[in-house]
Design brief:
This protein has about 500 residues and is α+β, with helices and mostly antiparallel strands. It has 10 helices and 26 strands.
Length: about 500
């Protein structure tokens, strides 16, 4: 950790104040300096009755502001299933926002109460401790109706403490911010290291969203410098991030992180990682005076998420899982802004028009019976025996196996058990799909493997294996997984096929 050194050895707070004064001269910056669109939920459960599929989507510009006035002509819907990829659906759009529909949101505020953010209460300058308190109160003012708010904190020695449970009484949470959300005093003895546990706090706070009766949309908001007692232990950090990702996925939580550091920002990357693995957002703050702008943006993003009701022209619906994606072409924006692909769960098909077809089939059946009676009465001649076709010879074609890589090699999967034992499959694309159906990047002739079983995604030099809801699941080193990052030498099992993953 960087510190300033002077002959008279001033306090850590004074050193931080000098760094803070310098930071006040710098502009506000954002991690997401590009346009961003995230598909949060696809709901097709009522498609059979309404003929509508509902999309919940966030759209931000390169300044982290919500893109206003989204129009139908900007939108294209694509879907994929077991047989087809990225099929365009024509139809009509009805666009509204979360606020228009008066949908509720559950918001958890996590207050950083460690000594890195300390400041003298009542001081004329704006300390990080006071700034986040005021920012949180501003955000609380944006909530209403069905929204619920809760408050957590962590300090030098206490990894998590719940100050307020989920409630619609936002005023009581603001009072708790003033009363109990305090920062520890700076550590005077440099040998005494603060035991800050950011990762455990975030995981514990996410688990609070298990509470019944909360709105479907769940957001955890944290402002921090990213410091954690395990910050220098990469293995421990990866483990904690995996725990946060799994908990967020289980509870449907997004992490919206605001990063601010008075000591160089070395650990802010952990906040970026938390936002990334939970499909949240990250904003980096350089000036505390911009705190109201940042939390206003977050409030707008929460309440102005777009709700898009789409009525396809030709789409019967399907009981199988479908993957949907939106493509946006916004004036003054990117040429084609694509959301992530997201499963819709079960899209119920349009009910069959039984009465109409009963009438038609009944009339046709009567006509058919009448025709059969006539044929029986006039049929006098014996039937001619049909010549028996000679059996055709079956020619077994020998399978030609070509394991030559089709592009730059980014990794490989060596098959050690199953029908393909001894073969090597090469990873050459950023997204590699695995299954028993033609069209996958890796096709396994194994009856225990689903048509679209799993996939490997490469991002930031990390390899993430995800199960696509397969029948027999996916295992890494004997452990069943939904999503998990791969390490060199991991043993992967798809059905009866077992492989070993290697980076090279």
């Amino acid at each position: 950790m960087h510190r300033f050194a002077f002959d008279n050895r001033p306090s850590r707070f004074l050193n931080s104040l000098i760094a803070f004064s310098f930071a006040m001269l710098l502009p506000l910056t954002s991690f997401a300096a590009v346009w961003w669109a995230n598909l949060d939920l696809v709901d097709g459960t009522n498609y059979g009755d309404t003929k509508k599929i509902r999309f919940f989507v966030d759209v931000l510009n390169d300044s982290n502001d919500v893109v206003a006035n989204l129009k139908p002509e900007y939108l294209t819907v694509l879907y994929s299933d077991a047989k087809k990829e990225d099929v365009k659906l024509d139809g009509e759009f009805e666009i509204s926002t979360f606020a228009d529909k008066d949908f509720g949101v559950a918001v958890m505020l996590v207050f950083a109460g460690h000594s890195n953010y300390a400041g003298e209460e009542g001081a004329k300058f704006l300390s990080p401790c006071k700034a986040q308190r005021e920012g949180f109160k501003k955000l609380a003012d944006t909530l209403k109706g069905q929204d619920q708010l809760a408050l957590y904190t962590y300090t030098n020695t206490q990894f998590s403490k719940k100050l307020a449970s989920f409630t619609r009484d936002y005023g009581s949470v603001k009072q708790e911010l003033d009363k109990s959300a305090k920062c520890d005093k700076p550590v005077a003895d440099p040998k005494k290291k603060a035991r800050i546990q950011l990762f455990r706090t975030i995981k514990s706070a996410i688990d609070e969203f298990k509470e019944e009766g909360l709105p479907r949309r769940k957001i955890l908001i944290v402002m921090s410098d990213g410091q954690d007692i395990r910050a220098e232990n990469q293995k421990a950090v990866r483990k904690r991030l995996d725990e946060i990702r799994e908990a967020a996925e289980t509870n449907g939580v997004r992490v919206y992180a605001v990063g601010f550091s008075m000591e160089g920002g070395k650990y802010l990357r952990f906040l970026r990682d938390m936002a990334r693995v939970t499909n949240g957002t990250y904003r980096e703050l350089k000036r505390l005076n911009d705190i109201e702008t940042v939390f206003f943006q977050i409030g707008q993003q929460i309440k102005k998420q777009y709700v898009i009701d789409f009525t396809p022209k030709k789409f019967k619906g399907d009981n199988k899982d479908l993957q949907f994606q939106l493509v946006l072409k916004i004036p003054k924006g990117p040429a084609a802004l694509k959301t992530n692909k997201l499963a819709a769960g079960t899209v119920k098909p349009i009910p069959f028009p039984w009465m109409k077809w009963v009438i038609w089939i009944g009339g046709g059946l009567l006509a058919f019976i009448f025709l059969i009676i006539i044929i029986v009465l006039i049929a006098k001649r014996p039937k001619k025996e049909k010549p028996v076709a000679a059996p055709m010879e079956e020619h077994e074609e020998e399978e030609i196996i070509d394991d030559t890589p089709r592009g730059p090699v980014k990794g490989k999967l060596e098959v050690v058990a199953g029908p393909h034992a001894g073969r090597t499959f090469w990873i050459t694309d950023d997204i590699t799909t695995i299954g028993s159906m033609d069209g996958n990047n890796i096709v396994l002739n194994d009856s225990s493997v689903s048509k679209r079983h799993a996939g490997i995604k490469i991002e930031d030099k990390r390899y993430e294996l995800a199960d696509f809801g397969s029948t027999n699941s996916t295992f890494i080193n004997g452990r069943k997984i939904n999503k998990q990052f791969l390490r060199d030498g991991d043993k992967i099992r798809f059905g009866d096929t077992e492989m070993v993953f290697h980076l090279q």
